[in-house]
Structures are given as structure tokens and as C-alpha cells.
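User: Could you walk me through two proteins back to back? I'd like the raw sequence and the C-alpha cells for each, with a short line separating them so I can tell where one ends and the next begins.

Assistant: Of course. Protein one, sequence then structure:
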Amino acid sequence: MDDEPEITLGDPAELLAGYLDFYRSEVLRKIDGLGEAELRSSRVPSGWTPIGLVNHLAHMERRWLRWGFRAEQVDSPWGDSGNWTPERPTAEVLAFFHEQCAHSREIAASAELTEVARAGGRFSEDDRPTLGWILFHVLQEYARHAGHLDISRELTDGSTG
């Protein structure tokens, strides 16, 4: 998806799904054309790298949808913590990202926005958010990090937009 969802779209579930896909593509577009050195170099004091940010977003989707909403037992749900330059090859990070996005799409399509997350994964019986809340949280993560990538890309090679 290259464009935002249609301006006439009013269904909240379709709107969230459309904007999530829009920002997923924006993140990939922001790193498209960067060489391996640029993908693994930081332009900011915190030290995150473009490929590290993609890795973070993949783990974030997994934490919120698979481990969070569905309460699936997943290996290393916080596997991105403090690791802004993953050791895995770029192709593996991108494949992991695409895999997690596909899982998230399937989960979002299979439940109502008002459905509450299962207990036993990320959440206990007392702190379970709705799917709508989770998807909105994931969307704001993407919007924020796409902006970070805008700045990083401009500092790297002058590309904007």
C-alpha cells in the first residue's frame, strides 16, 4: 500500500487495518535503497539504527498481538530490548517483520475491536485491553517511528518525504 486509506472509509476496524498497512509500507519505503552500512549505522545519540528499528517494530507487533492479545507463548517477546543493531542478517530481520505483520493482520481480522485480550500472555486477568486499544497503540508506534526514520533518512542521504 502506498497511499493512506480512502477518505470515505468510516468503519473503525477497516480504518485501523488500512492505516497500519500504510505505516508498515512507509517504514519499508524509508529504508528502501539504503546499503547495509547505512541500515546498521546510527545517526542519533540513542544509537538506534534503521534495521534495528524495523526489528523493534516486528517484536512490538508480536508482543502486542500474538503474546498480548492472543496470549500465545512466544520466544523472547522482548528480544529487541536494548539491541538497536540486530546481529541477524538484514534479510532475516525483514522476513521476521513481514511474518509478524501477517500474523497481526490475521489476528485483527479474526476478532472484534471490542474483544478483550486473553489472560496468560502479556496480560493478567486484571489488565487486559481491547483489540481496538491494542491496534491503536500499535498504530501510534508506527507513526512515531516512521517519523524517526524520516529524520534518519534525511541525515543519511538527504531523501525526504
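----
Protein two, same layout:
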Amino acid sequence: MTGPAVVALGGGHGLAASLEALKLVCDDITAVVTVADNGGSSGRLRDEFDVLPPGDLRMALAALCDDTEWGHTWRDVLQHRFPGDGPLGGHALGNLLITALWDLDRDPVAGLDLVGRLLNARGRVLPMAAVPLEITAQVEGLDPADRSRVQTLRGQVAVASTTGQVRSIALEPHDPPSAPATIEAVNAADWVILGPGSWFTSVMPHLLVPGLRDALHDTAARRLLTLNLEHSGETAGFSCARQVEALADHAPRMRLDVVLADPVAVDDVDELRAAAGRLGAEVVIAPVAQRGAPGHHDSLRLAAAYRDLFG
């Protein structure tokens, strides 16, 4: 198996789903992962050691593990989370391992490559930016006395769990440096995939890192946006078209080639096609959801959709 060179951008479970599908159709895979998490084990390590939050990077590495006993064993070790309320309680072992490697060598890419070798990973995992980031969001509807009032929320956890409607996001620092290897991967790709995942905290932050945003605009790669299966959480009440419009609002120069959506998730096909068309994209509707597990992508179905699109 060879296939195209693919860069997949995102974070958390959404990116992991995309990577598990991509492993079935191509060999040259690079995951570019958001580095704005400030909660749980990642947040604790970030605060204590002034490092990139390792959690989403760990999840991407685990998703790319070699499909052998060796790869699966080390994936499970990496994902093991210590129980209890002590100093180790809540930490994933992989987060500690990645942080230890960064303590020995401050180059984050070198440490991630070493963990990839341990897993015999079927690709490479790179950070979205070279420094930890903070997400801020303008959110409407949090004040019961004035639902039209817009307030500022700070931090990935607060934005991801808000009950209000997110209007826009920004990053601090506003102009973070990109890892050179990340830019090189995007420039060399045949396909770039955005999504699925938490729209405002995993998908769109990539478009706010100046160097990465420019690379996504300038690359000769075809650009694919994979939409979510449910409109909940950060995008509660959003249609598929509004998800696309929110992306366009944050990156006006961005152009897409394909928007991929599951038929169950599409509320208005014509509206979605109009929104995608404004970014230069065609809409492809294909069944990619897992049967009996609402909101979850099926790796085999998603792989089939990717394979057909890659041609």
C-alpha cells in the first residue's frame, strides 16, 4: 500500500478517528495536532513543566500505532491512565513519557518521533504550533438577564463546555510560531484533511496560526473538510452550512476542494452546497457514521470515503 501523502489536522477523538481510517488507505500520514488543551493531565503537566499539552499528541500517536501485537501493546501502555487521587492520579502514562522526553530534549518533534518509533507508528505526529496556546472565545447567551450579551471565555476547557453560542475564537499569543516540520509536511502533501472534531477548539485553531494558515492557503494539496456527525457541544444549534461558514469567517482566504458529510447529519443539502461553493468546494455525501453509536465515525466507512476521494 502506498497512496497519497496526507496531512490530517485536528485534535482529540475526532483526529484519532480520521487517522485510524487513513491507516487503511495510505502509508504517508502526518497528524498536525492542536496544542491548546488546558485541562486534566495535559493541563497539569503544561502548568508544572511549561511544555506543550501532550494529551492530544499522545492520542494521535496511539491512533497511528502499528496494527501488530507490539503496536497494540505499546498503544495500551501509552493510553493507560493512573487511578486515584494521588500525585499520579489522572495522568496518562503516555503524557508522562512525552513530557520526560521533552525534559531531556526541548525539541518537541524529536520526542514525538521517538514515541512514534516505539509504537512503530504508521505516520508522524507534529504540533500545530511550537508553543502552548490559549483559546479565547466570544460567547453569546450566558447571561440569563441579557441573552444577547457577548462575554469572553478563556481556555479550551471553558470554551468546549460552554452552554452559550460561540461567535468567534482567537489565540494567545496571537502570532505563535509554527514548527518548521509542520509547514514542510503541509507543503509536501497531496491531500490536507481538516476535521472531524470539536469545531472551535480542535479544528479551527489551526487556521489562526499564521505560518500554518499561510501554508494551508499556498499548498498545492487538495483540501478536504470532514464535517461532524452531530451538532452538539460547541456547535449546538449549528447546521452543517453554519459550520462551514464559521470556518470561512475565521480564515477568509481559505479554499477547500471537498466537504465530506454523512447523510444523517445534513439538514439542508442545498444550503450546505451553497456554503461549500463559496469556498470553492464540492459536497460529497457518504455514510461514514458508526451503526449503533451516534456521533462516532466508523473507521472502515470513513476509509472507504477517503479512498474514493483520493481516487
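The beta strands are 5-10, 28-33, 124-127, 134-140, 150-154, 165-172, 191-194, 222-226, 258-261, 282-285.

Let me know if you want the two compared in more detail.
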